[in-house]
What we know:
Elements: H1 3-11, E1 27-32, H2 40-55, E2 60-65, H3 73-82, E3 87-88, H4 115-122, H5 125-132, E4 139-149, E5 151-154, E6 168-171, H6 175-183, E7 187-190, H7 196-202, E8 207-210, H8 212-217, E9 226-228, E10 234-242, H9 243-247, H10 251-286, E11 290-292, H11 296-306, H12 308-312, H13 314-317, H14 319-330
Parallel strand pairs: 1-2, 1-3, 6-7, 6-8, 9-11
Antiparallel strand pairs: 3-10, 4-10, 5-8, 5-9
Helix pairs in contact: 1-3, 2-10
Amino acid sequence: xxxxxxxxxxxxxxxxxxxxxxxxxxxxxxxxxxxxxxxxxxxxxxxxxxxxxxxxxxxxxxxxxxxxxxxxxxxxxxxxxxxxxxxxxxxxxxxxxxxxxxxxxxxxxxxxxxxxxxxxxxxxxxxxxxxxxxxxxxxxxxxxxxxxxxxxxxxxxxxxxxxxxxxxxxxxxxxxxxxxxxxxxxxxxxxxxxxxxxxxxxxxxxxxxxxxxxxxxxxxxxxxxxxxxxxxxxxxxxxxxxxxxxxxxxxxxxxxxxxxxxxxxxxxxxxxxxxxxxxxxxxxxxxxxxxxxxxxxxxxxxxxxxxxxxxxxxxxxxxxxxxxxxxxxxx
Length: 331
């Protein structure tokens, strides 16, 4: 057990449903995440807090901890399983290292041709079946929250796939993302999100991939001279809870929390695109990063370079799963 998680258990006042708790004390839900409060996820977490506390008439208190205040990427899932926190919204790539590698299908480049296809997957039977796979690990999946589509950034122009050859690129821990970078000749470096700005600033890594809102709120544009609007991959989150905690809640508490989650999910997915648009505009206005919009031919070159990753990853994420998403795209 990592020391930080252990200390969280000792000092954090862990509350597991069914444990001793005074009748007049609110049920505490610690909601930890790794991004800034003014990102789509950060704002959605605050919306859930508001709706949950209102919907339960104060019987539930939601404590939101942004910016890795409690746990970094690798620690937070362990903390949830142990009960040190009750709720997280990790990026979908985080479940691969946990052993549910099917979630890495979301990392496949250009797997979702439109936002409608993405929504049909997350809100339909494919999304539900993926969340169900978490339950054997003590995790209950509640919802999918959007961030947006990722762009490449570095300290050199990235006009074509070959421009990434030899570039040290930060990625999340995902075999698919590793394969994506290697397909471009880049050198993938797994790193916690909270460490990326400093790593870019000091040259530990040369570049990264993020939706504009993450890039802007973490001030990465201050240490990245160039970015290309490839929109090559999706970044989304699964809102998850400790299964034992959630199922141990009284029914009259869990029901309004489910309503609060449904409403905050609508909010999250509605604001994500606008937040990314606003962040991109703000970074352009700063003049610190030069943004390149690929032409049709340039975009095709990116797609041609990256689409073979689908075939390469069939054995990891599942050929049937990939083909089921292709089928949604054709509907």
